[in-house]
Design a protein that fits this description.
Oligomer: single chain
Largest sheet: 3 strands, mixed
Number of helices: 1
Number of domains: 1
Order of helices and strands: EEEEEEH
């Protein structure tokens, strides 16, 4: 998967289906589809609609959480 949008409901990464990313989609990965009006993406797993802004907000939360975990593990000293 080259590009992914994280569903804010089920937290699943959905592969981008554009011409550039399509060749990187592997079997078993969830792929986004678009609503009829093109306003929303539809999750490939739970089929709920979400916007680009919601996907970006979820990606920000996930990356911020990962950074906080990384910083926590670096600042923790273990005594033997």
């Amino acid at each position: 998967m080259k590009g992914a949008f994280i569903c804010p409901y089920c937290k699943t990464k959905n592969a981008c289906d554009c011409k550039s990313c399509k060749e990187y989609i592997q079997e078993g990965e969830f792929v986004i589809t678009f609503s009829e009006d093109g306003e929303y993406m539809m999750c490939g797993k739970c089929n709920r609609p979400f916007s680009f802004d919601q996907a970006l907000d979820e990606e920000y939360r996930v990356s911020r959480y990962a950074i906080s975990l990384e910083n926590t593990s670096k600042n923790t000293e273990y005594e033997s």
